[in-house]
Amino acid sequence: MRLRSTRIPRDAVHHPVFARFYARVSVTADLRGGIAGLREELLSGVSGRVIEIGAGNGLNFAHYPGSVSEVVAIEPERRLRQLAARAGFRAEVPVDVVPGTAEALPVKSEAFDAAVASLVLCTVRDLPRALSEIKRVLRPGGELRFFEHTLAPGRALATTQRVVDRTVWPLLFGGCHTARDTIAAIESAGFELGVYRRLRIPEKGVQLPTTPCVLGVARRSMAVE
Predict the structure, then answer these.
(1) Mean pLDDT, rounded, for 64-81
(2) H or E element: which one contains 143?
(3) CATH class as words, domain 16-219
């Protein structure tokens, strides 16, 4: 598959301290926090050519089923991209890790059967534009698989999320915005929402701004747009 000629700055996203922190914490969360099982659920049954948005350090790669013919993994942060490339070599499906941003995906339109967004839509600078780009690169009827932080349904935690989003949270955690209403944003982008469920991570104990999550699937309409 030929990538678009869109020129991507080498460091379109630069969070070196957070990248190192995330690379360690994410592995622990997968092993001890049950995140690996959620990745397995997220990717179950996905097939064909897949684009992964914000691949991070590549923890999803081990969970892609054999029905996937190719994964093009977009990651803008240099250190995370390097780690993802190493994970790609170990994957059982073909993985190509490339630089790029969610708001300007360097691939052709309608080139993919599925897109995967895993704990990344909270960090993109322009969520509507990123979702529009995902929609552009999916074939009609293509799936968007998502596992994301989202706005809490309860007023108290939602208020906390909005407060921290306006203060230090994005600065400390790689641009993460915890108060985004992910489901509403996906629907507003024109996707047809499928089955999804709300999660709390962790399920018990102290509730963090990142505790409310949502996991599910949406589709690009088959209709001509």
Answers:
(1) 96
(2) strand 138-149
(3) alpha beta
